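ok posting inputs for the magnesium ion job
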Amino acid sequence: MKIYLDKDINKPKVKEDIHKIVSSGGLVVFPTETVYGIGADATNPNAVKKIFVAKGRPSDNPLIVHLADQKDLLTVVKEIPKHAYPLMEKYWPGPLTLVFQKTDLIPKEVSGGLDTVGIRIPSNLVAQEVIRSAGVPICAPSANVSGKPSSTLFEHVKSDFDGKVDLMIDGGKVTIGLESTVLDVTTPIPVLLRPGAITKEMIENTLGVGIIDATETKINDIPRSPGMKYAHYAPTGNVSLIEGRKEDVISYIIENMKSKDIKEVGVIAPSEYLTDIDCMYKVDLGPIEDLNEVATNIFLALRQMDTLNIKYIYIPALPKEGLGQAIMNRLLKAAGNQVIHV
Ligand code: AMP
Ligand code: MG
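and the output
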């Protein structure tokens, strides 16, 4: 397995290696602005299958196809619905995945048997260069073992995939920290399937109309997006997500911790909550006013809990507006969709 640094991405040897590995059906781990991805040639079913094996991912959970340039879009999608244009113009390249009708170039292994495919053009220049060097569309889910938090640091992908892929690129900490927004544009009214850094409000403002929000679909309902039915992002410990006034949430955590072994307790919270809580393992998400900063630390914090073998994890619920919707979507999954109201 080869490991390269992001700063070396323009070296001919690195590009050549990426090209050779992807052309021969290998796997490449690379940074994007959202989370790290584990990529393969999206047109090669055998290469695609290797991703599912490496991740332990259910085969009906489709992969997002990444392009470096919008000019290649019509090779992978049949048609571009009118309402997709303003979104592509405004948010591509960037953390927005749009779901279109797929062409035959994209095999069913990528789409989980669906006729549609999710497409994204990452803004991360290393990710773009990986795709250009490969010379084919790259399907890349988040680079984490299925069910575990997505990777936002190189250490995370190293611990999940060392020796199991052909090449890894170390891009340090990612800038956004949450997976892309997924929006289905094949329907007359677009449907939000996964909230992300491009928020529902941003999409509605760009389109000038309301969209359908399917992100609250419960586990037992029929999911609009296959990924919705899987309990993602779960650390091994039990996650308590607590909603209420700050003082009440803090009191609940302090009271609840008392009956536990302090070495098995972890608190993940915005800075404002932590000064009043006395415990061994605290992860500071950053100030609550800075949700961008909080977002970059969520998966890192959840993974840290596993590293420390924490059994009881306490997290205050955050406001659901704007980026908060995407953050709470991930936290709810980590907490098995349960919220404790205090
Ligand atoms: P990941 O690659 O791990 O970020 O997960 C991709 C997410 O996008 C999953 O939740 C998928 O269910 C969703 N997705 C990808 N392609 C489609 C599609 N064609 N239709 C609906 N959802 C999709
Ligand atoms: Mg994922």
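notes: The mean pLDDT is 95. Residues 291-307 form the longest helix (17 residues).
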